[in-house]
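Annex B. Sample input.
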Amino acid sequence: QVQLVESGGGLVQAGGSLRLSCAASTSTFSSRNMGWFRQAPGKEREFVAAITWDTGSTYYRGSVKGRFTMSRDSAKNTIYLVMNSLKSEDTAVYYCAAGRPKSLFVGDSYLSTGNYDYWGQGTQVTVSS
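Annex B, continued. Sample output.
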């Protein structure tokens, strides 16, 4: 069982920055792909970013490329999402997620919520315009 706890959300003005953290209960990152997703009111949960367990390769949705950066600190069992140049459309609840042990992304499978087994409770990010 993997427990994930997000933190770092809040209210920020457009153009501002936030850093989200996701702490895992176990040494998760050495064997699991990790992802960030978000869900705005009335919308489906959507992919934001992912990092692979083996090479540390990162993937981003197009609208956040160049603004968001995902990283991990295995010693702290924590992953991060640094969000710069925030826009009102980034407003959502942000969730971190852990994939199956030693699975590999095939094609764009990192996009799918079905490829992640464990989810955090989410942290609210609100960007005011």
